[in-house]
UniProtKB/TrEMBL annotation:
This is DNA repair protein rhp54. It is found in: Nucleus. Keywords: ATP-binding, DNA damage, DNA repair, DNA-binding, Helicase, Hydrolase, Nucleotide-binding, Nucleus, Phosphoprotein. Pfam families: Helicase_C, Rad54_N, SNF2-rel_dom. One of its GO terms (molecular function) is ATP binding. Its main location: nucleus. Residues 563-716 form the Helicase C-terminal domain. InterPro entries: Helicase_ATP-bd, Helicase_C-like, P-loop_NTPase, Rad54_N, SNF2-like_sf, SNF2/RAD54-like_C, SNF2_N, SNF2_RAD54_helicase_repair.
Length: 802
């Protein structure tokens, strides 16, 4: 076999050099290119003994100028690589680390200050590469075994209660089914994904709230939480908080709201993202203040719609709030009035709302109203109604509140009326037969069994443990002589007689004239309202239209005004107390204001004409102990709900309302949390007049409310449902027509009480202490004691809280 000739590289180089642009590499360079590349790192560095073992050449500076041509030699590529390797090892810039050390090192967050609160060293470490992630251990937000721990949900207790054993038939069907294509784990019921399911954790109240809640408030928060989370009924997520005024409903609701916004049985997840608080316009600012007070100024930022923004700006803000979700929700709580929400409900009806609070929820008593329809259109299932008086006029209103909180709980309105309302009302009538009463009691018990699961109501008796004593009085005031003449003249006039015969068409106008006349004759335009009444004028009386600049009020022309004038003078002279004067008429407030100015009493006034933003400032000014004003004039419609006037310890409700709930709201303004002094409350009633008839009708409604809501079984059936004719009458031969209807056995014929009531029931004035004018000397209140022997107060009913 012929051998291949060995190429002559010198010849090849000479040949190639003749061809411009081409070079043949040397043999050394070819060998170097075929060797595997090694990184000059920490594992393939050149050892010291591999370096040229030669001493450093001494330099002879004397012969430095001698040129040594023999030392010149060709600088090869090998020399260059040797120098580079030597310099790298002498001055290392980077040395690659072993991969085992790099991938096995624990990950740490690159923070400058790892000692801060925001850094959690115990958090699960992130997964690197294909390494299996660390197991996440779910923990509750607050320690359930802490000092102030109040547990609303315990998975070890509440979840076990929901487990129901499957019926036997279902179990046999499962056993009889085909076992094909099933693994052994499926047949044995072993859940392989059990570790993947996140364990449920306890829901614990925030300790900063838990340590300030009173026992009845803790009970209320637990009740509401169980209702709105479906723990009582998975198909019902609403409830009614019907505590009487002053028990802290607002604080209980704030606690529930804060808990749902921050916690749920799933660790790290909230129950809700958004909530709406709807309330009267006068309480919007108060709700915002209460949130800041109990949660902290910077804890949560509510969206309080106070009327300052324009319509276009409000629409834009509501749309932004509606589309926000998750972490983009910066203001989770809207506080808005009923009127504003009704007008802007279209911007909110398509967003999911976690919770809805309806403060003073008796505004939803009419299911046909625009307000009820607007709120019912919101996409929210958790609904909490706050009201101190769930029954105001009839059971239909009570049904409306219940059906709003939990739709379909009581069926349709017609079903409710047939099943509950008619039998209960028949049984409550004073003329009812024994069968009707038994039937009414049965229907009442059935209604309570259904509704009480979603309704909680506590009375003011609880407050006796925390608040000073409250003395509440119904003060019956005789008419002044001028009032009496005008009253008799009007009810005997031809127009009223025609009305009583069924020929009149304006009974409401006549009723309003009598109600205003009971306050003061100056509230009427006598020439128009009582034509021909000039024959009743005393010689010194000047009609208000002919007085010119003389705007002074004459209390002597009104029995109630005389009593009030003496009370204010005694307070100003002998005490440091403050007093609230409430009326249903702004014209009556005008009389109060003029009387205070003429007596040089400092006073403040709040009515419907005042801007909503200024109301809270006015309230704070009056509650200041160092304030100069000791009289606060309040319209029952504008400020009767929710306003705290604890700066005063006396209150006068000058005229009654047809709705007992309105009066109860007004009477609860001073005896509330924060009150430090004994409270004295007075309800003025003109003796023998239409006001007594109104008060008696209120008593009937209060009796109905006690029966259905308070479950009181000993409320007496005193009154029948009277006709309109009884309103237009006057009894001059009595100290109190209401007391006469009681047929009280504890009082002597002269009216002096000889036997105290065994127990006072707040909703039943027949169980209160009864006084007549000649028996006022032992009464506890100094303002009423001074009325002894004076014309004005004819009778007094007294209730003592504890």
């Amino acid at each position: 076999m012929a051998t291949s000739p060995i190429p002559d590289f010198n010849v090849a180089r000479a040949t190639v050099n003749k061809q411009p642009g081409r070079r043949i590499p040397s043999l050394e360079s070819l060998n170097r290119l075929h060797k595997p590349f090694k990184c000059p790192g920490s594992f393939n560095f050149t050892l010291t003994h591999d370096r040229p073992a030669r001493k450093r050449k001494r330099v002879d500076y004397k012969s430095a100028d001698v040129i040594d041509y023999d030392s010149d030699k060709i600088y090869t590529n090998s020399d260059r690589l040797a120098l580079a390797t030597r310099d790298v090892n002498r001055f290392p810039v980077f040395q690659a680390k072993e991969k085992g050390l790099v991938f096995g090192k624990a990950f740490t967050i690159p923070l400058q200050n790892k000692q801060s609160v925001a850094y959690d060293a115990d958090r699960p470490r992130p997964t690197l590469g294909l390494r299996q992630g660390a197991a996440f251990i779910p923990k509750p937000l607050h320690d359930p075994s802490g000092e102030f721990a109040i547990v609303l949900y315990d998975p070890t207790v509440d979840d076990d209660a929901k487990v129901e054993e499957a019926p036997c038939q279902v179990q046999w069907e499962k056993l009889g089914s085909s076992l094909g294509h099933k693994s052994l784990a499926d047949i044995l019921g072993i859940n392989k994904n059990k570790d993947d399911q996140r364990r449920r954790v306890p829901v614990v109240l925030d300790p900063k709230l838990a340590k300030i809640l009173r026992p009845h408030q803790i009970e209320g928060v637990k009740f509401m939480y169980r209702c709105v989370t479906g723990m009582i009924d998975e198909n019902a997520h609403g409830c009614i908080m019907a505590d009487e005024m002053g028990l802290g409903k607002t604080l209980q609701c704030i606690t529930l709201l804060w808990t749902l916004l921050k916690q749920s049985p799933d660790a790290g997840k909230p129950t809700i993202d958004k909530a709406i608080v709807v309330c009267p316009a006068s309480l919007v600012k108060n709700w915002a203040n209460e949130l800041a007070k109990w949660l902290g100024a910077n804890t949560t930022t509510p969206f309080a719609i106070d009327g300052k923004a324009s319509k276009e700006e409000l629409t834009r803000q509501l749309r932004q709030w509606a589309i926000a979700s998750g972490r983009s929700v910066t203001r989770p709580v809207i506080i808005v009035s009923y009127e504003t929400l009704r007008l802007n409900v279209d911007q909110l009806k398509h967003t999911k709302i976690g919770l809805l609070f309806c403060d003073e929820g008796h505004r939803l008593k009419n299911p046909e109203s625009n307000t009820f329809t607007a709120l019912n259109s919101l996409n929210v299932s958790r609904r909490v109604i706050l009201t101190g008086t769930p029954i105001q006029n009839d059971l239909t209103e009570y049904f409306s509140l219940t059906s709003f909180a939990n739709p379909d709980l009581l069926g349709s309105r017609l079903d409710f009326r047939k099943r509950f309302e008619i039998p209960i009302l028949r049984g409550r009538d004073a003329d009812a037969s024994e069968a009707d009463r038994l039937r009414g009691d049965e229907c009442t018990a059935e209604l309570l069994a259904i509704v009480n699961k979603f309704l909680i109501r506590r009375t003011n008796d609880i407050l006796s443990k925390y608040l000073p004593v409250k003395y509440e009085h119904v003060v019956f005031c005789s008419l002044a002589p001028f009032q009496l003449h005008l009253y008799n003249y009007f009810i005997t006039s031809p127009d009223i007689q025609a009305l009583l015969r069924g020929k009149g068409s304006q009974p409401l106008k006549a009723i309003n004239i009598l109600k205003k006349l009971c306050n003061h004759p100056d509230l009427l335009n006598l020439a128009e309202d009582l034509p021909g009444s000039e024959v009743c004028f005393p010689a010194e009386y000047t009609p208000k239209g002919t007085r010119g600049r003389d705007r002074n009020v004459e209390p002597r022309y009104s029995g109630k005004m005389q009593v009030l004038d003496r009370m204010l003078a005694r307070i100003w002279r002998d005490t440091k107390d403050k007093i609230v004067l409430i009326s249903n008429y702004t014209s009556t407030l005008d009389l109060f204001e003029r009387m205070c100015r003429s007596r040089q009493y400092g006073c403040l006034r709040l009515d419907g004409t005042m801007n909503v933003n200024k109301r809270q400032k006015l309230v704070d000014r009056f509650n200041d102990p160092d304030g100069d004003e000791f009289v606060f004039l309040l319209s029952s419609k504008a400020g009767g709900c929710g306003i705290n006037l604890i700066g005063a310890n006396r209150l006068v409700l000058f005229d009654p309302d047809w709705n007992p709930a309105a009066d109860q709201q007004a009477l609860a303004r001073v005896w509330r949390d924060g009150q430090k002094k004994d409270c004295f409350v007075y309800r003025f009633i003109a003796t023998g007049t239409i006001e007594e008839k109104i008060f008696q009708r209120q008593s009937h409604k209060q009796s109905l409310s006690s029966c259905v809501v308070d479950s009181a079984e000993d409320v007496e059936r005193h009154f029948s449902l009277d006709s309109l004719r009884e309103l237009f009458s006057y009894r001059s031969d009595t100290c109190s027509d209401t007391h006469d209807t009681f047929k009280c056995k504890r009082c002597k014929p002269n009216g002096i009480q000889s036997i105290k009531a065994p127990a006072m029931l707040y909703g039943d004035t027949s169980t209160w202490n009864h006084y007549v004018n000649i028996g006022l000397q032992p009464i506890q209140d100094l303002l009423l004691r001074q009325e002894y022997g004076m014309a004005g107060v004819s009778s007094v009913f007294q209730y003592i809280s504890h």
